[in-house]
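Note to self: the last two entries modelled the partners one at a time, which told us nothing about the interface. This time every component goes in together.
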Amino acid sequence: METLVEQIGNVCVIRVQGRIQAATVKDLETILNKCIRDTYPTIVCNLEGCDFIDSSGLRVLLLALKQMSAEKRDFVLSSLNKYIHDVFHVSGIAKLFEIFDSEQRALAKFDDGNRSV
Amino acid sequence: MPVVPKILVVDDEPDLELLIRQKFRKKIQAQEIRFAFAQNGIEALEILQADNEIEVVLTDINMPKMDGLTFLGKLAERTYNPLLKAIIVSAYGDMENIRTAMNRGAFDFITKPIDFADLDITLEKTFQQIQQMKTALDAHNKLVALHKELSVANKIQQSIIPRNFPTSDFFELHADMIPAKEVGGDFYDFFMLDSERLGVIMADVSGKGVPAAIFMAMSRTLLHAHAQTGQSPSACIEQVNALLNRDSDSAMFVTVFYGILDIRSGEFTYCNGGHNPPLLLRASGLVVEIPLTGGVVVGILPDLTYSSHQLQIEAGDTLFLFTDGVTEAMNAQGELYSDERLYAKLSELNGLSVADIMHRIIEDVRSFTGDVDQSDDLTVMALRLKDGTV
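The predicted structure of the combined assembly is written out below.
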């Protein structure tokens, strides 16, 4: 599993590729925690390249959501494929996240256009 | 951080200590080596008893009170540092004593007069050997600890899963849970709430090993206790979610399906907390999925609400509950057993006893996965409403 982080305006975008599962989830957790500590008002987690997620992955995403919501910040998802969407649907968590079709749509909502370095 | 090696020199020659401290002066000062000294075997044993940092013993053969060969024999008898290695110092050409010493477990020998360069090399070689053994012993101990931990998790899981299946004029029920090597935290439960109502639960804890087993035991206890009040499945799950969130630091969750069957009327009231939906095998052979109820996985987010739904189960219908260990079982080609295969197999087995249905499904999953190690618990339950009851 690989992750790529990019700052776009006031949004922290995390792009995840590959399988989010018990063996690899620690890396995702570390990245998420770092992005949560860096005080972006919004984190977009782009799961386009992700073709598998297990309960450890759901757990990590839920914990991030919990923490960000407690601080009145936004943690949203984009680009879920059908399989991932199904997993979210069965586990009931699909309705807990704001889910966008694409990273662009998510940025359209949250990016303030500010390009300070 | 490797400890500085410590050698016990056992020799009655008065000048030897001075000589060794002189020849090894640089290494001693650089804290690369430490020495202790004894005059004979008895003194040496006393020192070894008190000091467990000594890794190597360098011993002469001819000494008063206790000679070197006897000393070697005593070393073998008692349980000093198990990695302790003995090097003997013998007279040149004294093959008989050298052989005796080697047979009594000496690691190596050097001859008199002592060539200190040779001694240095011999000691280095000995330390390296000891280091290798320490590493191996460490790995072994970690493995033993891991086995113990897995065994504990396994015991916790086995202790909470009921195996006494009820006999009834109104229904047949059977269930099984086959744990993976690393306990996956699946469990099922069933209980009569009163003479007319049967409660069934199928659940799966996120995570593995002892933490999952503990969370599983907690979840099962809470669910069982709150179910006994006879309230609706959704009210029960809602309360358990609140309690698990309050008490649990571990940030784990459990997916839960809880249903109550009225065994006379066939009315089935259920709530699904994020669990893969059970299947209903109708008497006709048609397989349908029990609709989701919108519930979220339990135990990780507070203040969630849950809903109960209802459906009618007819005589001859079979409810099949399971965890994703079944549908996500993988073969060597990386293919999943999948929902589709399960539906097809279930339909095929229509009419068989619930025990048979269960066993055949498990068999089918196992023959699908072949030699691949089971990566998650396999948990299944089959419940049929008997003919002539509704």
